[in-house]
Amino acid sequence: MKRDINSNGYIFLYSTLLVVVVAVLLTAAALWLQPYQQRNKDNEQRLQILKAAGIKDVDKNNASERFEQHCTASLLLDEKGNVTQDGALPLYVIDDEIRVVPMKGNGLWGPIWGYLAVAADGKTVVGATFDHKSETPGLGGEITTEPFQRQFAGKRFMNNGRLVPLEVDAISGATKTSNGVKEMVNRTIQQYAPYFEQR
Amino acid sequence: MNAKKLLIEPLRKTNPVTVLVLGICSCLAVTAKLKPALVMGASVTVVTAFSNLIISLLRKGIPSRIRIIVQLVVVATLVILIDQFLKAFAYDVSKQLSVYVGLIITNCIIMGRLEAFALSHGPGESFLDGLGNGLGYSLILVIVAFFRELLGSGTLLGYPIFPQSFYEAGYQNNGLMILPPMALIVVGIIIWIQRSRHPEMQENNQK
After folding, report:
1. pTM (2 d.p.)
2. How confident is the model at residue B205 (pLDDT cuts 50, 70, 90)?
């Protein structure tokens, strides 16, 4: 007996089966690959932190090793800038001097993020790195490029005890992404300002 | 149909972008630079080939009333699986690709080939058809990206092409080339050239 493949029963059966097979497949892949993906992600994060701090000759192969060498402490801060166990603001200390803080914000199409490295004086930016999930290549995507990121090095965000905005050139044609970067950097500096003011 | 024809025809006379005018949306989005165009071309080729193969294998059992849903599920699963694998074993490629994952799933060429070809042909032929159409799409993408990056940024794959003396003599990169509308114009020019070289493709001359 041949089944009618257009009967309602068959359609329900077929779609149920399809969904179950696909779900099992995707779950299995996700579970199996997760440790590898996490390792890549951690590696990438370390690479970005070191790059922001201006450490030379790091690449994806030696990022973990270099991170162990250079990162002297990783701390958590509360809103008042005090180091606590359960603070919400992470901070990495590189070579006992440079403080690197993570930034998170929104671009045009999706999240953007990055790291901002601050010199020992607590007033000057050493460097910054940015990355994004889905900004337009050639426009907003340019925030990941060296010429854009280089602009941040040496800028001061604190002058006579007051916060001043960093001034860098935006990317023409990528107004929304540029505004997202601006908002993200300024907000991050404001959040961490109490910590840097203490220094 | 023989294998060579299935593979080569989509590069020319049945090109998915310039003749069928499918996949234009991603053509605008990823052709500002050559590198993303190459990545996108390669990933679409892989996905069309394998989704064609899978749908062709399943074709006798798929109820026609839910075939579009089944196609979408297969394509989406495939794309997500590939993305997961790349994230685990080729992180750099996956970072390049992350932007396009959504674009690949909704690429009209993939659905178009599944509907028009894979549902009515055997797995071997369907695989080649998918491969051919993916390559045809990549070809146009690369041509468009080549001109947009060269004239818009003065670089190819990120390497500067014009010597500094050009710029000193007054040459300027054309910023308009980076904006999406110029992709349409370049595609239009390619279609124009293609049609004027093949008079049989013009509607009035068809008989």
Report:
1. 0.75
2. low
